């Protein structure tokens, strides 16, 4: 066929990409003179681009997704077999993999009981917001409809999710936003001085108390839910300080506020537990997840709730609007739960939660060594294989380095064949945290290679 391409015509593939693909999160003007990066293969923790360059992937697919690594034939086989048997049916009916995965998932989440399938993390959070709003109308005359979100947290790309997003640069140029979303302060202890709390021994509790202050200001009878990441991801890899989560839980129960935990990044092992919230003894009402649920082998996202939340939508009245009137077209795809079932089996059988804890400890040790060597590293933090290093121009004032300098460190690591991440175009003047999230299969040698590349990169950029 005239103009046909095949996968071996690499130059043609690159030109087709340049001419027709609109990349995510990218300014395309530079592609007029330079080639876009095209990835062609992955195996284990490594990926190869179209030019044959091999990279150690320290960010699990660029966005914290490929938790069990690349090239898992057993997941691909499970997806293939399921697609041949039944590829899709609308979520108004069930499916065998949907039922089986829901049961396996709930076994990992004591206290929760219901799984609502979606196709992306943004959509899962949208569903949660809609449930909160419908509960407000069904039970509170529409009044208890406001949703609290935290400064620096991120919950997705849709307008409603951006309305609940604490990253101003991601929100810029997309307003006006959905009303009824209210921000609460961040809980980053390293920047407690910006909140006037730098000398507080109980910073975690005080950071949580700041949420209660917002609730009292807005009116507790107007607040339906509080939506938080267990560990803030793109806002700077912020592991919550001691005392924070118990106080948050207490506040939510005090004012009858649903606690919605966004596990889109942390879910399925990233922090060394099945879910990030399980590190802190939290008992959420709603949990959303996506990225690591099937490690990127198929699209799947879930909103999981307690039976109490589910029962709020049971209704035998004659009101035609008495149920959760929502559908996710591709939430009915069977490939997602089929892949997710095999993904869970791999994590269990290969002991990847234990490996995540061990390699996470090693990664933090290596980051501490970098902090000792490089004055530009102001703070290192994280949980499991989800870590960050905040770069500062001055350790005393904690003035952040310019975003372009942090991005140069990423570029220098890439030049050495190691991919790492960085907060970018999210927080005005605060896009200065290097982000690390290698696959849960990472070895000691992988961790050491990441740290060595960062060492060289920091030296090249900052001396």
Alpha-carbon distance between the two ends:
55 Å
- Tell me the fraction of residues in β-strands, as a range: 15-25%
How many distinct folded domains? 2
Largest sheet data: 7 strands, mixed
Structural class: alpha/beta
- The CATH architecture of the largest domain would be 3-Layer(aba) Sandwich
CATH homologous superfamily heading of the largest domain = Type I PLP-dependent aspartate aminotransferase-like (Major domain)
The H-and-E topology, N to C, reads as: HEEEHHHEHEHHEHEHEEEHHHEEEHEEEH
Helix content: 25-40%
Given the structure, what is the number of helices? 14
Question: How are the secondary structure elements laid out?
Answer:
Blueprint (H helix, E strand, L loop, with lengths): L9 H11 L18 E5 L2 E4 L4 E4 L2 H5 L8 H13 L10 H12 L6 E5 L2 H20 L5 E5 L8 H5 L4 H4 L9 E4 L18 H16 L4 E6 L15 H11 L3 E5 L23 E4 L11 E5 L1 H5 L23 H15 L2 H22 L3 E6 L4 E8 L4 E2 L2 H13 L2 E2 L1 E2 L10 E4 L7 H19 L1
Parallel strand pairs: 3-14, 5-6, 5-7, 7-8, 8-9
Antiparallel strand pairs: 1-2, 2-3, 4-10, 9-10, 11-12, 12-13, 12-16, 15-16
């Amino acid at each position: 066929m005239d103009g046909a391409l095949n996968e071996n015509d690499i130059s043609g593939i690159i030109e087709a990409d340049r001419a027709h693909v609109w990349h995510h999160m990218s300014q395309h003007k530079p592609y007029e003179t330079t080639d876009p990066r095209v990835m062609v293969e992955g195996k284990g923790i490594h990926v190869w681009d179209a030019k044959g360059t091999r990279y150690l992937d320290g960010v699990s697919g660029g966005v914290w997704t490929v938790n069990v690594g690349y090239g898992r034939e057993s997941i691909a086989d499970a997806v293939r077999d399921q697609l041949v048997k039944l590829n899709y049916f609308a979520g108004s009916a069930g499916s065998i993999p949907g039922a089986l995965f829901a049961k396996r998932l709930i076994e990992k989440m004591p206290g929760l009981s219901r799984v609502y399938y979606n196709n992306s993390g943004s959509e899962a959070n949208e569903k949660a917001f809609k449930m909160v709003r419908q509960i407000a109308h069904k039970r509170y005359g529409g009044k208890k409809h406001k949703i609290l979100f935290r400064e620096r947290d991120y919950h997705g790309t849709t307008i409603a999710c951006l309305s609940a997003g604490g990253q101003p640069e991601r929100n810029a140029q997309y307003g006006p936003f959905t009303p009824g979303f209210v921000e609460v302060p961040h809980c980053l202890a390293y920047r407690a001085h910006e909140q006037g709390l730098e000398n507080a021994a109980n910073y975690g509790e005080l950071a949580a108390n700041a949420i209660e202050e917002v609730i009292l200001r807005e009116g507790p009878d107007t607040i339906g839910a509080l939506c938080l990441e267990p560990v803030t991801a793109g806002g700077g890899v912020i592991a919550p300080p001691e005392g924070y989560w118990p106080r948050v839980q207490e506040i939510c129960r005090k004012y009858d506020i649903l606690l919605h935990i966004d596990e889109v990044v942390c879910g399925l092992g990233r922090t060394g537990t099945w879910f990030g919230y399980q590190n802190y003894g939290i008992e959420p009402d709603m949990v959303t997840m996506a990225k690591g649920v099937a490690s990127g082998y198929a699209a799947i996202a879930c909103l999981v709730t307690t039976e109490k939340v589910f029962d709020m939508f049971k209704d035998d009245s004659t009101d035609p609007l008495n149920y959760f009137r929502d559908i996710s077209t591709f939430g009915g795809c069977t490939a997602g739960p089929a892949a997710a079932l095999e993904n869970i089996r791999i994590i269990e059988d290969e002991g990847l939660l234990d490996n995540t804890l061990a390699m996470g400890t090693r990664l933090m040790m290596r980051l501490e060594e970098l902090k000792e060597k490089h004055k530009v590293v102001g703070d290192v933090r994280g949980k499991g294989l989800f870590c960050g290093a905040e770069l500062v121009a001055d350790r005393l004032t904690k003035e952040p380095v310019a975003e372009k300098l942090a991005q140069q460190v990423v570029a220098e690591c890439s030049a050495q064949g190691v991919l790492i991440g960085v907060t970018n175009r999210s927080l005005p003047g605060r896009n200065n945290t290097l982000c690390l999230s290698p696959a849960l299969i990472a070895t000691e040698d992988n961790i050491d290679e990441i740290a060595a590349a960062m060492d060289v990169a920091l030296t090249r950029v900052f001396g």
